[in-house]
Amino acid sequence: MILLFKILAHLPLSILRRVGAAGGWLIWASSARYRAMMNQAWHLACASGRLSLAPGELARLKRRSIGQAGLLVAELPKLWCDPQSAPQAETRGLDEVLQAAQAGRGLILLTPHLGAFELAARVFALHHPITVLYRPAKQRGLRRLMETLRPALNLATAPANAAGVRRLLRALRQGQAIGMLPDQVPANGDGVWAPFFGRPAYTMVLPIRLAQTTKAPIFWVRAIRTTTGWTVEFESWAPDPGIEVGTIEQAVLAMNRALEAQILQAPEQYLWPYNRYKTPRGVLTPEEARRP
Fold first, then answer.
1. Theoretical Cys-Cys bridge with 242: which of 2, 84, 237, 246, CB 3.0 to 4.6 Å?
2. In Å, how far from its chain's centre is CA 273?
3. What is the distance between the alpha carbons of residues 259 and 217, in angstroms, rounded to a whole number?
4. Contact 133, 180 (CB under 8 A)
């Protein structure tokens, strides 16, 4: 599999994207569960009023998102194995992030499941060390692939467990950056329920806790696909005082609201089929928690 990825990395990006778009539609057509999860997330976003577009435009964006979901896998050979992918990506707002790094308190970079999100940390690693939180794959072959190809110069990884959290904290205290997917569903005890496009979603508290502990600034990072490549956009986040003096629930609510704003920058590139609203094992739903 590793050799196959290295071979595919030599193909033009346009060909990989065509194959990926076809794959996205194939999965959509063949899996009722996949369609149901995507339809649910998309309809919730529309019903929330945040996707305030004309019906025709919403339908067009949804059709595009079906193909875009397939690009997530199709682009990986380029992102992981082509050393020119990261340097060729256009960047916006990077200077502000690098200037903040000079304070020595570390940086927290939040990247949604949006566009070529695997590229975001690789672009930043060209300029500053970063450690990225990840959830190890259950399949041994896939886990070996990720552990072999994901790391790069200045780019380390940390598993989503207690040892990984200690690694993130150590990186921050050394003035380095850390990265994570704030819309990834955490395990029991590592999150709280907070609205996401109008429906409660179990949401990680880790970036908020680390910001409170280290005073590290938080930045959003979007890796948006363009016609010929990608644009990686960095945006500082100055949340309301909930980060400092409010409850963790208030801070997470603010984070989810900011996350929605990130997604609205390119809603057709968000990974809507991701099961964002699942209930982790051992976690009580909000309704169950309210029962006497």
1. 246
2. 13
3. 16
4. yes
The 8-class DSSP code of residue 106 comes to: -
Q: Residue 131, Cβ neighbours under 10 Å: how many?
A: 27
SS3 101: helix
CB neighbour class for 98 (10 Å; exposed up to 12, middle 13-18, buried from 19): middle
Distance CA 130, CA 120 (A): 11
Number of domains comprising the chain: 1
Q: Token pair of 6, please?
A: 């290295």
Distance of alpha carbon 114 from alpha carbon 193, whole angstroms: 22
Q: Does 288 reside within a domain?
A: no
228-244: average pLDDT: 80
- Report pLDDT digits (tens) over 81-109: 999 999 999 999 999 999 999 999 999 99
Instruction: Kindly state whether residue 285 falls inside one of the protein's structural domains.
Output: no
Longest dimension (CA), the chain: 60
**Residue at 286 is within a domain:** no
Question: What does the alpha-carbon distance between residue 186 and residue 190 come to, in Å, rounded to a whole number?
Answer: 6
Pairing mode of beta strands 218-225, 230-237: antiparallel
Two tokens, residue 281? 């094992």
Taking only the tens place, the pLDDT of each residue in 186-225 is: 999 899 999 999 999 999 999 999 999 999 999 999 999 9
CA distance 111 to 177: 13
CA distance readout (Å), 229 to 26, 74, 110, 145, 269: 24, 13, 21, 24, 14
Place of tokens 């959290």: 165
Q: Which domain holds residue 200?
A: 2-275
In a domain, 27, yes or no: yes
Provide the whole-model pTM.
0.94
